[in-house]
């Protein structure tokens, strides 16, 4: 299995179907004694129901045992309070979340609930006629919790099981989210992290700053035409459009059909996005729409000075259904109930992984981003992304392009500002896509998680280019399901402002102040936050005026890779065809003929891709990922961190990182001694976490899997030996060993 070190794979055979394995708990019910463990509640959090004498199963080696305690359900989380919880509060747990504990599950993090009846596992939903003796909870962060209710009073079992099912699966109203209870209760205690300099893009000044930073203010302008959401509730109050575009055009179709600026390249090319116009059947209205789009297009496509390439992501790329289907299959590989199930499915790992198509979807996203990067960087063309609402795949692709082309986006503040700009202000429907309200399962699509997985591929391949670590990306993905932060719990800025009281008529009530996920001090202590910052990242050196001219020339030369001769300016006939192509896509009609032949696009892409990878990497310049088959890997830290059998003790990247941190500490110590000799008063830098000093005590999936022990089961499951054949047959087969320690 990926991420397990050395893995053996044999011929595909039909092994026995994995089944639920019951756990035998050897304990005397009379000897069960429970210690009173305090339940820590957040401001505004209320206890709803609880059950005592509950056994939480713990996997360790090849046997299973349980920990007694209380299982409680609040309006924020499901929590297990174990008798030995005090033993966990020691120095071994350095990376501790202050909001969500090790045995806490926020209600929004619950994926599926199962019950075991007479050793048969069944999905639980709605009203139950019979209550299970065991409860299994699959979480969206891929944790699996198993609770034995055999020793719990019958009334308590009914109360806790019914309560958990209702509060995690029943449809909710937006105002009933814990987000509002917490904001109201903690309103006077909310403190903003002074170190958080993330650009929120909720003011006109923020957009003007971004325009100036990217040198896009010569061709584009920030507008306030939607202030108060008078024009469109889907768009933010402020955004950027091409300078020649009249502002009254924004009013025409409520923001649809308007090219909205995302980012400008150093060579003047820009990335834009546009949502499609409403589909109409009336020929008269269609003609009006076509005439409107023709006028808009002429403002952005002015050959030979401004050439625009359109990318229709709705019809020529992934569908949201493909993404959801692939992830649904993919996540099942990691929701392992027990060790036996793990080893039984291990032999089919590669075929199951391939059939999910999740890694292929990641590859296609990265490839599309590279194609757009090539158009902007090598061909100096503007690129216009088209999508029905420009709030899903537009957010994904535009963010990846900026990560590859703009080193500022690879800093932590730059990355957080990018998410604010393209996702939060870009109108990505987090509430629906994460299914926080449980109102429509069909709307649930992990688009943002797909983006983070694509970012992880870049971070994994080019670690020195990023100021943040894979641990940062992992806790960011976990934060999708913590309802005390407003960042991922609204569909649009308008929805947020309206429900926070900022757009309401009641001027006497004070608007609620919500936390953002970027205030990391809310979740982690300073020592734990050091694991979010990459110690190998080196900031781009600031140059004095005398150096800038020569260095700028070098920078341009490195980014402008040698390609085929750029195309001549389109003729009038070509312009007409390009315009019609844009109009047909925006009106919702697919066309079979593309403007540029696919062969020509492939040739340009391949030459651009190969040329970049043939040269030394400039971590502060253009950055392209490898997208060949084996280069796209499983994000092991996120997907395998809760599976003890998948961990490597004292190995993988954590061992390398510990040695590097030791060297960094030694260099810092020497530097301090030098500074002391020069009577310097410079303060010493923050000390690296002490847990990293001894890699032998760590798991490969640190900091989430600390001091976990391997199962002693064989690499190939014993239940599958008969299906594999006899010993002589096995000896003839060619086993493949794959070193996956660095996955």
From TrEMBL:
It comes from the Eukaryota. GO terms for biological process: phosphatidylinositol dephosphorylation. Residues 201-639 form the Myotubularin phosphatase domain. CDD domains: PTP-MTMR12. It is found in: Cytoplasm, Myofibril, Sarcomere; Sarcoplasmic reticulum. One of its GO terms (cellular component) is sarcomere. It holds the Pfam family Myotub-related. Keywords: Cytoplasm, Sarcoplasmic reticulum. Its main location: cytoplasm. InterPro entries: MTMR12-like_C, MTMR12_PTP, Myotubularin, Myotubularin-like_Pase_dom, PH-like_dom_sf, Prot-tyrosine_phosphatase-like. Belongs to the protein-tyrosine phosphatase family. Non-receptor class myotubularin subfamily. Acts as an adapter for the myotubularin-related phosphatases. Regulates phosphatase MTM1 protein stability and possibly its intracellular location. By stabilizing MTM1 protein levels, required for skeletal muscle maintenance but not for myogenesis. Heterodimer with lipid phosphatase MTM1. Heterodimer with lipid phosphatase MTMR2. This is Myotubularin-related protein 12. It comes from Macaca nemestrina (Pig-tailed macaque). The gene is MTMR12.
